[in-house]
Write a structure and sequence with these properties.
By secondary structure, the chain is α/β, with parallel strands linked by helices. The chain has a single domain, classed as Metal-dependent hydrolases (TIM Barrel), CATH 3.20.20. The longest helix has 17 residues. It is globular. It starts with 7 loop residues before the first strand and ends with a helix. The structure holds ligand LF4KAAF6. The ligand CC(=O)NCCS(=O)(=O)O binds next to loops.
């Protein structure tokens, strides 16, 4: 328990959770994803190094991780600011910015964006996947990692006094590496000490989410303060999904707007469409999990921005909510998913 009890913590300081409003629980406003570059298919190297052009946009949409410039969301602060103003005009209130150590978190830029747009921005503490862990991170004990995470929440991140308000996204590969396991245990200890929200990026296996939640629980975390991200690309089987839901964590469908034929990180998986995501959410509501569902876009490459012909940060509010209503999901349930559930998760206990 800390003085943050009953509050949510934004990059501008603690706020009353009632003021958060419509909340996207998994986005990035500035990050560098070059560490996850996927070499292009033979013969496509020139496209990979080339600039954004109208005639390349479809290729970039299908191969987002093979276009080098596309991975540099950190270069687009002006465009992101404009988009945050659109998000606010569409009724948006809060964005949880999940960039952690390893993919170029920039809390100073987040603070400036919050000041200039009036959107509440909540920054993430902790570490991304193992391939981005520094040798120092790899060598740390759970206690040392816990100390860093707690400090990022209580004192400030990256040498600033700008404080994080969630732990994560904590990056996990499949299978989990030893360093990732220690980071998860540290996230759990930070949660036990501070009562803070935690959010996890699972490895690409349907077994990963369950393993992670159990590991967190064994290390002292509460499933009810934990979000499992990227379920859209991770659990496809209905029985497996409902079994996982029983563990009691938040179930996040956060790749809205991502529609492609070929999922570069895992070609054997068919990335669902937005309509299929809505159908999964409908199923979870029908099965009684409406208090556990969260939604977001996880914008993390340039091509997802309006500036590059993408869907932007307002896609859920402008396009997905109307479609959810058409599919029989009531406004009351939508408000649970986009307001009440994020608020409960983001409030420190
Ligand atoms: C930034 C990030 O981790 N995005 C997730 C991409 S994935 O394809 O869902 O793993």
């Amino acid at each position: 328990m800390t003085s943050l009890r009953g509050k949510a913590q934004t990059v501008l300081g603690p706020v009353e959770p009632d003021c958060l409003g419509y909340t996207l629980t998994h986005e990035h406003l500035t990050m560098n994803y070059s560490s996850c570059f996927c070499p292009p298919s033979p013969g496509q190297e020139a496209l990979s190094d080339g600039p954004f052009e109208m005639k390349n946009l479809y290729w970039i949409k299908q191969n987002p991780y093979s276009h080098k410039e596309n991975l540099l969301l950190c270069e687009e602060t002006d465009a992101v600011k404009e988009e945050l103003l659109h998000f606010k005009a569409a009724g948006g209130g809060t964005i949880v910015e999940n960039t952690t150590t390893g993919i170029a978190r920039d809390v100073k830029t987040l603070k400036k964006l919050a000041e200039e747009t009036g959107v509440h921005i909540i920054a993430g503490a902790g570490f991304y996947v193992d391939s981005t862990h520094s040798p120092q991170t790899q060598a740390m004990t759970v206690e040392q990692l816990t100390g860093i995470i707690v400090d990022e929440i209580l004192s400030g991140a990256d040498g600033t006094d700008i404080k994080c308000g969630v732990v994560g996204e904590i990056g996990c590969s499949w299978p989990l590496t030893a360093s990732e396991r220690r980071v998860l245990q540290a996230a759990a200890q930070a949660q036990a000490q501070l009562g803070c929200p935690v959010i996890v990026h699972p490895g690409r296996s349907s077994q990963a989410p369950g393993r992670i939640v159990r590991l967190l629980q064994e290390a002292g975390a509460k499933a009810a303060k934990t979000v499992m991200s990227h379920l859209d690309r991770t659990i496809f089987d209905t029985e497996e999904l409902l079994e996982f839901a029983e563990l009691g964590c938040y179930l996040e469908y956060d790749l809205f707007g991502t529609e492609f034929l070929h999922y570069q990180f895992q070609p054997e998986v068919d990335m669902p469409s937005d309509s299929q995501r809505i159908a999964r959410i409908r199923l979870l509501i029908d099965e009684g999990y409406e208090d556990r569902i969260l939604m977001a876009h996880d914008v993390h490459t340039k091509n997802r921005l309006l500036k590059y012909g993408g869907h932007g940060y307002s896609h859920i509010l402008k396009n997905i909510v109307p479609k959810m209503l058409i599919r029989g999901i009531s406004q009351d349930k939508i408000d649970k998913i986009l307001i009440a559930n994020p608020k409960r998760w983001l409030t420190f206990e």
